[in-house]
Fold this protein.
Amino acid sequence: MKLPYWHVDAFADRPFAGNQAAVMPLDDWLPDEVLQAIGEENNFAETAFVVKDAGGDADWQLRWFTPACEIRLCGHATLAAGHVLLGRDGGDRVRFRTRKAGVLEVRRSAAGYELALPAIPTARSDWPEAVALLGAEPEEVWRNPDGYGIYLYANEDAVRALDPDLRGLGALGDDQFICTAPGRASDVVSRVFVPGGGVDEDSVTGSAHAALTPFWAARLGRDSFTAHQASRRGGDLACRLEGDRAWLGGACVMVVEGTFHLPDGADGGGGQVAG
């Protein structure tokens, strides 16, 4: 069986930057264990699988798999899927139905694309066990019960210098540890660690910025700002809070277009490739 395959660098204006995602359109859903095996084989932070949505207010159904598990929300792989589908099929926007994050939208913009994610609220909290593993004491801790934690530091240098105990953080669960501070060249800087979800340090994390957007909009006193995720690859986002949506703008670069070869019978008898 041959499956269409795209490798995209999301939130990047050049190859070898931003966050890598695989995008794979299917005609029907493959068994979950096959989707997970493909995600492990691709070995990107996420592989986005899409299937046409029959009826309803979305164009495609969308699911995301890390090398270790299926996740509830992924921004950069959604942006990558929008880049592939809008480039292939045309149009100005595409809407995705997800299992736990509702309907998400990607549309063309001056920056390349804009992605709408549900804004994730956080509240002042504490987590001494996590703080002890981050490598430096944050000034504040804010958390959301769905596993998003914001750790506020005084400046960009403090965030860049972090050397967390990744194995220890992974043992705490699949939470996102979002370490952030005011930036120098951008309004906001961050690094994001998700070792419990199979991603030690994520390159550029859309879902983390769905939490950072309302957090920093309140602190900055304005609804839009620029953000840089200071991973090794690095990536830039334009963030805007609009009602209950975090709009994240950025570019995408196509790196590979090809074919994924799936062993005969691995589809369980029901999955076919997308044309």
